Amino acid sequence: MPDPGTPDPETHAGPPSVGGRYPVEQRGLFFEEFDVAALYQHRPGRTVTEADNVLFTTMTMNTQALHLDAAWSATQPFGERLVNSMFTLSTMVGSSVAQLTQGTIVANLGFSAVTFPHPLHHGDTLYSETIVIDKRLSNSRQGQGIITLEHTGRNQHGVVVGTAVRTVLVWCREAAL
Predict the structure, then answer these.
(1) N or C: which end of the chain has fewer CB within 10 A?
(2) pLDDT of residue 155
(3) Parent domain of 157
(4) Tally of domains in the chain
(5) Mean pLDDT of residues grouped by 10 in the chain (177 residues)?
């Protein structure tokens, strides 16, 4: 049995804290822990407010009246302002971080097949999920692997409001320790 004062390098990053307890740090998955076809549901959802939309839209210098001008938007096909689709994409991906890539990602490699089949409205709650659609070891970066993720965002009624395929480079367990 190991000495309780010596951390197990497989499960603990450092010395025990007060009372001999080891800290548990939230992290994403290492390459080996991703399973193709696994479905991850990211909770809690995120209820989107008017303030979220206006702040994100202005912070990113997107002056699209469809996100900012209530009077003009009322004359358009949806009859109201819509949530910025880049906010929808960012929130879909962001909600996956703690569960999938926190501290294990090396880099985002790219996005493809981004769609917004239904608008997100102020007051809607965005729920996200991710399916692992592919994984392979990197040919050029030893100790790292490439994971392909398909993110889907749905509103509180289950209607798909966004999808995106994202490719990420992540650490293999042994290389990261």
Answers:
(1) N
(2) 98
(3) 28-49+95-176
(4) 1
(5) 47 59 83 96 97 97 96 98 98 97 97 97 98 97 97 98 98 89
Position 169 in a domain: yes
∠ Cα 30 33 34 (to 5°): 100
Residue 56 near residue 87, CB atoms below 8 Å:
yes
Residue 71 lies in a domain: no
The amino acid occupying position 107 is: A
Residue 9 preceded by cis peptide, ω within 30: no
Which residues lie below 8 Å from residue 171, measured CB to CB, with a gap of 6+?
A: 30, 31, 104, 105, 106, 143, 144
Whether 43 maps to a domain, the answer reads yes
CATH number assigned to the domain comprising residue 125:
3.10.129.10
DSSP per position, the chain: ---TTS--TTT-SS---GGGPPP-------GGG--TT-EEEEEEEEEPPHHHHHHHHHHTT---HHHH-HHHHTTSTTSS----HHHHHHHHHHTTHHHHTTTTEEEEEEEEEEE-SS---TT-EEEEEEEEEEEEE-SSSTTEEEEEEEEEEE-TTS-EEEEEEEEEEEE-HHHH-
Give pLDDT, residue 176: 81
Q: For residue 21, what pLDDT is reported?
A: 75
Does residue 78 sit within a domain? no
